[in-house]
Amino acid sequence: AMDADVKNESLSFVQQLGVEMTIRYGKYLKLLKEHAENGLCFVLMNCEKFLKQQQRTVASSLCCLQERYAGYDWFASSVFLIMSGDGEKTLTFLQRFSRLLVSAFLWLPRLHISMHLPITTVESGIHPVYFCCAHHIEMLLKAELPLVFSAFHMSGFTPSQICLQWITQCFWNYMDWSEICHYIAICIFLGPDYQIYMCISVFRHLQQDILKHTEA
């Protein structure tokens, strides 16, 4: 996007909060230097400008189908930290990455009201990650970890809700930074189905805790 166009963009309140959190986390990890905030804002505004070019106009009362992606772009922020706060490198990577199928699963804003989706899918307001990955996670969980699946069923809570939260946030606040980097790298190199296997492996790791909480 042209710099002049990007300057006309502004970050939402949610994005501003996300930027503060990302910068604080990056400095804690010793990945970012001073004034990294401007670089991250530049990346996010460029992403928004770039993705707008591939969005449909949808007449809907659903908040999630308004022009702007409602949440924060955790994936772009993760790449920004991986690139040690280099905005140009981050944008170059994201532009190339957006051509890959796996970008639809890792980078959720990528398919927000996208022209690449059927209009019926767009109008439903449900992201493909939910009805693709989350559906397969539930199927695999039932086969691989029946006790965990039953525990969720008894609680009236679906595993897919938890997984969508993990995936949307790129596992921030759930896994250590090195594990988050491994998660992103594994899905890029080995394919988006590893997103499903990662969630199942986390449930396997948490199985005893989940069962203990169910009993209590």
Automatic annotation (TrEMBL):
Residue ranges constituting the BROMI C-terminal Rab TBC-like domain according to the UniProt record: 1-215
Name of the protein described by the UniProt record: BROMI protein
Record InterPro entries: BROMI_C (IPR055392), Rab-GAP_TBC_sf (IPR035969)
Gene name for this UniProt entry: Tbc1d32_1
Source organism (scientific name): Pelecanoides urinatrix
Family annotation (SUPFAM superfamilies): Ypt/Rab-GAP domain of gyp1p
